[in-house]
Amino acid sequence: MSQEWNIVVCVKQVPDADDVSIDPDTGTLNRSDAEAVLNQPDYNAVESALQLREAVGGTVTAVTMGPPFATAVLQEAVALGADDGVLLTDRAFGGSDTWPTSLALAAIAEELDADVVICGEESTDSSTGQVPPGIAAHNDWSQLTYVEELEPNPEEDELIAVRDIEGGHEKVAASLPVVVAVGFGLNEPRIAGLHRKIYAENEFEPQEYSASDLGIEESVGLAASPTSVGGMATADPVERKREMVEDVETLFEELESTGAI
Amino acid sequence: MPGEVDTEDYADVWVFIEQHDGEAAKVSWELLAKGRELADEKGERLVALVMGDSVTHLAEEAIERGADEVLVAEDPIFEPYLPGPYGEQFRYLVEERHPDVVLIGGSHTGRDFAGRVAVPTYAGLTADCTELDIEPDTGLLLAKRPTFGGDAMATIKCVEHRPQMATVRPGVFDAAQPDPDREGTITEVEVVVDESHQRSRMIERVVGDITDITDANVVVAGGYGTEGDFGPVEDLAAALGGEVAATREAVEEGWIEAARQVGQTGKTVKPDLYIACGISGAIQHLEGMNDSKTIVAINDDPNAPIFDDADYGIVGDLFEICPALTELIEQKRGETA
Ligand SMILES: Cc1cc2nc3c(=O)[nH]c(=O)nc-3n(C[C@H](O)[C@H](O)[C@H](O)COP(=O)(O)OP(=O)(O)OC[C@H]3O[C@@H](n4cnc5c(N)ncnc54)[C@H](O)[C@@H]3O)c2cc1C
After folding, report:
1. Confidence category of residue B215, pLDDT binned at 50, 70, 90
2. Using a 6 Å cutoff on CB, does residue B225 contact ligand 1?
3. What is the 3-state secondary structure (H, E, C) of chain B?
4. Residue B154: closest CA among chain A residues belongs to which residue?
5. Statement: residue A140 has pLDDT above 80
6. Which residue ranges does the record assign to the Electron transfer flavoprotein alpha/beta-subunit N-terminal domain (chain A) (predicted)?
7. Residue A1 — pLDDT band, cuts 50, 70, 90?
8. Given B154, B203, B212, which is nearest A232 (Cβ)?
9. Which residue of B has its CA nearest to A258?
10. What is the rounded distance in angstroms from the CA atom of residue B183 to the CA atom of residue B203?
11. Residue B108, in any domain of the structure
């Protein structure tokens, strides 16, 4: 029975969703000036990791895969209270879809001897939600997704979660090591303290790993990705009438005459 | 590199029939209807997959709804759903039988285990597709999904790996009606999983306590503009015989339960009539309601973006407009009754 848990929290740097816009004239995506931020659902993941550490003891290590400037999201996690941060950075990772991405995260989780890996529900830029189950599948670990409540049961080396499902919920106990995807908004993420912030920005240095450090250089990147983007188009906006009506009577009549009510 | 395959060895379109306690999830029948189209286009067979305990009735229904063959893995280990056994059994079937395309519902169950199939089989998996087509020259699956919060549509292909897998949310496609005269074969497959694949256990499963808004013909949704008073929204929904829904903002404030959230991280609804009350029209919200037939926006800010995505817009206070509209609808009902 492990006394303290090695908790790994996966975080991602994404373009600020509010800054990604569509140019109404050209219909093209405009994200050049979007600020890079910590994926919003990952704040819930970091908070869950910190709460878990408070409950059972152990360490929280934030992990991200990305270019060197992705260190910023590790700093953010460390400012919030993570003990350490790991940056998976290597040109070899470039173009990875969810299969190699989850492989790389699975490999570092193994390397760090993780008991629990916590992720956000999905990323705001690609929103597949596939990476957490992918990590679990690569390592053949248990998994808990769409988690609304999380409770450790260290006596049994397991985590107990309430999962959101269609039309209800389920309560599941999963043995360690386990990969958790927490529901967006499941907790109130804390605010970083000033001292921690100063430490994160000035003293903290992430541990860096390349693909070959993890022995996976042949299995990551564009070439190892089963899927590829075959095209990108602006979403066809649904044609709407955009009729402004002056009063409720007119609205009612319009809806009635078109058969909507 | 692992997983290199001869794509020629792979054929047929598979649809996973998600079931709980012997009841199929509606999205499975929706996917079966879409799968039928894709299989016909490719000139291949449509195969349904059912896992569970005592599920023969679902296998029969799958044939009535379009499957040529149904593979049934029957064992108590498949009740209730757990990702370990489901993923392992599905992996085995994929490796044995080489399907070309695999469709899984984008429910929390489907998305939970799709990766447990795609990873060990080295398959390409596209999440939350809203359109599925076959590329005419190549026969490849073109899986289209909204990206950047719904502003763009990406087409995802899987050229060198098999199967080509996709998840699709409930409500995106229409289910076909069952035809009792359709014929097909039911094949019992070998169950290859045991307790060692479980790794987690279900303590309790509660369903039915929460309404399914994806099924409603009329949805009246409230946002932050309700300031926590959903009364006028509820009354309007009741007058129209519809369901109440909400934005993420309203859910986060604790004004309404999460199951009623519409949008990217909520549900996709497709009613005949969607009335948005005090909702600004963020792209994450629009993504869940854009397939509604008629959209009405009620907002006191004439510049609210929601008006661009509505058929009818009315500028004003929802606390005045909703009750007035409710009254007119009730009057009409009184007249016709
Ligand atoms: C990763 C991610 C996922 C998300 N997923 C979702 C999702 O699934 N669903 C979702 O809805 N959002 C989602 N969001 C949040 C989304 O970006 C918006 O913040 C949210 O939709 C706004 O909710 P709202 O329209 O209720 O509130 P607001 O944007 O605050 O709008 C309130 C509107 O009410 C109007 N109003 C105020 N008072 C009145 C009145 N008395 N009468 C009439 N009108 C009034 C105001 O003019 C305003 O337009 C997500 C965000 C992120 C980052």
Report:
1. confident
2. yes
3. CCCCCCHHHCCCEEEEECEECCEECHHHHHHHHHHHHHHHHHCCCEEEEEEECCCHHHHHHHHHCCCCEEEEEECHHHCCCCHHHHHHHHHHHHHHHCCCEEEEECCHHHHHHHHHHHHHHCCEEEEEECEEEECCCCCCEEEEEEEHHHCEEEEEECCCCCCEEEEECCCCCCCCCCCCCCCCEEEECCCCCCHHHCCEEEEEEEECCCCCHHHCCEEEEECHHHCCCCHHHHHHHHHHCCEEEECHHHHHCCCCCHHHEECCCCECCCCCEEEEECCCCCHHHHHHHCCCCEEEEEECCCCCHHHHHCCEEEECCHHHHHHHHHHHHHHHHHHHC
4. A232
5. yes
6. 26-218
7. very low
8. B154
9. B294
10. 39
11. yes
Q: State whether B164 and B300 are in the same domain.
A: no
Which of chain B's residues have a Cβ under 8 Å away from the Cβ of A99? 118-119, 122, 124-125
Q: Tell me the pLDDT band of A32, cut-offs 50, 70 and 90.
A: low
Say which of B107, B119, B203 has its CB closest to residue A173: B203
pLDDT in tens, A143-183: 999 999 999 999 999 999 999 988 889 999 999 999 999 99
Residue A249's Cβ-side half-sphere holds a number of Cα atoms within 13 Å equal to 0
Tell me the CA–centroid distance for residue B222 and ligand 1, in Å: 9
Residue with the larger pLDDT of the pair B258 and A62: A62
Lowest-pLDDT range of A85-94, B67-76, B212-221? B212-221
Name the band, by pLDDT with cuts 50, 70 and 90, for residue B1: very low
A115 touching B (Cβ < 8 Å): no
- Do B132 and B281 belong together in one domain? no
Residue B304 alpha carbon, nearest atom of ligand 1: 49
Mutate to test the interface with A, among B18, B104, B108 (most CBs of A within 10 A): B108
Q: Is the pLDDT of residue B314 over 70?
A: yes
Query: Distance from first CA to last CA of chain A, Å, rounded?
Result: 63
Question: Which residues in chain B are contacts of A246 at CB distance < 8 A?
Answer: 314
| Owning domain of residue B306 | 213-336
Domains of chain A: 5-231 (3.40.50.620)
Does B138 lie in the same domain as B19? yes
Tokens of A52: 């878990």
Check residue A121 and give its pLDDT.
Answer: 94
CB-closest option in B107, B160, B313 to A166: B107
Q: Which of B279, B295, B306, B309 should be mutated for ligand 1, with most atoms under 8 A from CB?
A: B279
